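#dry-run=false #mode=assembly
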Amino acid sequence: MTTLSFADPMGSDMSENRIASDPAPIDDADARLEEIGPPPRARSKAWIVRLASIVVVVGAWEIFGRQVNPLFMSSPSAIATAAVRLIADGELFEALKSSLWTLLVGFITASAIGVVLGLLIGRYKTMDAATDWLVNALYSTPLIAIMPLVILWFGLGDAAKLFIVCILAVFPVLINTAAGVRNVPTQLIDVSAAFAANERQVFLKIIVPATLPYIMTGLRLGIGRSIIGMVVAEFFTAITGLGAMIVKYGNQYDTAAMFVPILVLMFLGIGLTTLLKRAEEHFAPWRGQED
Amino acid sequence: MSAPPIKLSVRNVTKTFRVRKGSDTSLLNVLRNVNFDVRQGEIVSLIGESGCGKTTLLRIVQGLIRLDSGDLLIDGAAVKRSGRDRGFVFQQASLLPWRTARQNVEFGLELQGMPKQARADRAMQLLELVSLAHAADQFPHQMSGGMQQRIGLARALAIDPAILLMDEPFSALDAQTREVLQTELMRIHAQTAKTTLFVTHDLDEAIFLSDRVVVLAARPGRVKKIIDIPFAHPRPELTALRGDPAFQAIRAEIWSLISTPPVAVAA
Ligand SMILES: Nc1ncnc2c1ncn2[C@@H]1O[C@H](COP(=O)(O)OP(=O)(O)OP(=O)(O)O)[C@@H](O)[C@H]1O
Ligand SMILES: [Mg+2]
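#status=ok
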């Protein structure tokens, strides 16, 4: 993608039908999008400010961290030293590998289930009526709360971990996918009907591509919840992975070493979310950047 | 000169919508006993005031809406469902935003299962026909409204339908672009000789493009009069045609037909 133009053909359709007195949010969106793409000079200035802010915060942490008992708080330099040690003896890498496996297998399973169910629920009213109460109830429940039950069902092994990762991620994916299907413009469904598409073709050539941006949003929200599920599962079941490292060094009162996996989790969250955010923009350049 | 055969017959088409308002439903009789024919290679326009059922009628002909009673005949045979013997051009171009111009034109061909290379070739031919070969790789959001409508036309023509259905395709465009596209449509029609049913509320457009104009009365929609447009093809530019007294007479007649208050229908 080289150039992004934000004139949304569907948006203009909508503004067509808008009454004059309506404050036309489309225009607001355009104005906002203008702000998103500032001139390159302003953008580099924002980066200078951001960098300065990072230096100040990390510096303050270093100074403050050295004053207090290392049991309660650590400093960036102490964490860096611990990180070097944990990387050198391979412990961090092993933990990361184990965590990533749980995370990715659970998340990919959740994505597949969420997308398929979301497409069906969004398209078929009966499916929706049969499941909406359950989906809404489970989405609103902090599902971490069922961890003890999950352990009863699946024991302390990988199955329990995968289940909790999966169930946390599945609902945002499902709900966003279904919302995407419901928002497919009726004009596009009309086009497929006019060209005598069969149901399979309507799905593959209209509904799925039109829903893709919503699916990507669902995946982005889902990955954050997956990471939470993963860490909690690693705390409460057979302790492995990054969660295990946090518990272990916490118990050993080695706060600096405990911070290492926490920071890794932070970077993992940032990295995966950014990746999916990029994918979102890539799959729907016509949609602009709405959230 | 023997008249060409009848391609499309609309016979006693009647449609009533069930309109739900709060808890009670009322019936809205949108079309009543609509009758007209379109001959092979003709352009016939449907004109009438807003809400008189033009879009409904066109969608019935496409098979997007089921009719309550009456018949729809293509080449004398009854048709009931949507099919690729009819190509539809929508009021809002309704292009698929994730597809390039060429891929949009390929849409119907893809549904037919035409092989990739063949449909790419055919799409390029049609893009040339609508003078947009240079924009083949552009996405709809990068195109003007006029370009989008040309792509919509190319998409409908790509499947080589027997009948072309167009629902106010130029109404959302500015006056100049509209006239350019009207002339363009005439040129394309001269090349393809597609039987065309064209909905519009623009009198000049109806007269300029059509061989016949079907004037509809509203509530319920029914045929008020069918007017033959005598101008020979190829026709002069619309601006030149407007000066013709015959044009003005036809325009005045249609205008009076449309603007007369609807006759009260006995309950
Ligand atoms: N699906 C529907 N359900 C109920 N009423 C409908 C439906 N579709 C159309 N109508 C009504 O039928 C009437 C005719 O609508 P239609 O869209 O065919 O008019 P039109 O002649 O195309 O008008 P315009 O020139 O404004 O496009 C209108 O009163 C409209 O409200
Ligand atoms: Mg209409």
